[in-house]
């Protein structure tokens, strides 16, 4: 057989066993010395992620070219073997092998996955030296890497310097802003892309739908929906699931369900996304019903499904149901609980005031504890005023993440709620010593199909005087109706009159979790102004209507 025949055989291989059989015939028949055949073997092994076989083959090769080295870099990157990926890349540089737009994106992807910003910058410099810094594939990889490393400024500088931006580059940059928690900029960039005549494809629509979900912009969600159906994009698993998540996080679980029902094909991710959607909106019973429908349809649940289900139970106060699902995960569905499932259970028990049970569960965990578990316990302690357990949870958190300002702030708030101002000052001093600052929160509001972004005490809007005047008028109406500000939610040691002022400003700030006074305020506004209000905090949605909230005052 000639070399081309062996290459044809390799291309027909469907598994590693078949590749090894062809490999053996290549060696026995003395064709292994043909570099084209050897490289094709290396390529096929890498495609099947059989890198142990590839490494053995590579070690036996007496002749190697730039394709050989490129395959080693790419194959190692695909299986997450960053040591061999970096090693092969170093050999390429040392040997003076010509770099190309195939090798660099794989090395950059490894930097991205490892969040290795230092190495990423080195690769960027190498790309500059070899004239590949403006290659579309290299640029897209660098943009993605900088986004995953949370340095959006570097991504933006690179993007701005590109003389030609194709759809892939625009899509990556839009996703980069969303990755760096600036979905507002993602939407603005999408508008720019459309203005410049770049037509989005299905991947771009998935990316912008994800950005829209993070921002919660319903009018943009409607636009995206219309664009998708106007341009006859098929509602496949990936796009359909993105739209379910988008609508759910924009406040309409009904629209999410409509998309779900229209999908011809659904996989476990689609079902899990819809279960999660019900969880965001506190509809635990609906989530459970859908879970049983999923089982009846023959779809087996996975880890994500149970995270969504337990989350839904936790936000609806379905304690016994949550316990049951947690116990059945492994027994009936062979899904071993991981730290996310334990976190959901700690949160479920903590919200119900069973903080001692939550701690007992943490102490019996069979997986490594991380900051999420202790954060859930600390949050429960704050809600229910358990100072002793709060300090235990906080100490565990600070051991795991000593540079996370949020943990210090939460503990400080717990001390403030208990009136322990000396301890509050100690925490604040410790933050100052360690040069830690809490990142200010942003709030978004949609008015007449336009999204506005602001933070606490913001006066940047051109009509801010009118806005604050309207707020004063609204407050007067509420007070006449019997509203009394609950100053227990202001965690500062100040006079009572000042606390009331803080609460009025507080309703324009973005909290991790809506406070009790804001919740009462929103209920009364919905009744007096006869207007439905949807509020999304970090955990879930609250639908206020006629003086009541969809959460039933359990959140």
UniProtKB/TrEMBL annotation:
Residues 507-555 form the DYW domain. GO terms for molecular function: RNA binding; zinc ion binding. InterPro entries: DYW_dom, E2_motif, E_motif, PPR_At4g14850-like_plant, PPR_rpt, TPR-like_helical_dom_sf. PPR repeats lie at residues 166-200, 236-266, 267-301, 338-372. The lineage of its organism: Eukaryota, Viridiplantae, Streptophyta, Embryophyta, Tracheophyta. This is Pentatricopeptide repeat-containing protein. Belongs to the PPR family. PCMP-H subfamily. It comes from Senna tora. SUPFAM superfamilies: TPR-like (SSF48452). Keywords: Repeat. Pfam families: DYW_deaminase (PF14432), E_motif (PF20431), Eplus_motif (PF20430), PPR (PF01535), PPR_1 (PF12854), PPR_2 (PF13041). GO terms for biological process: chloroplast RNA processing; RNA modification. Coiled coil: none annotated.
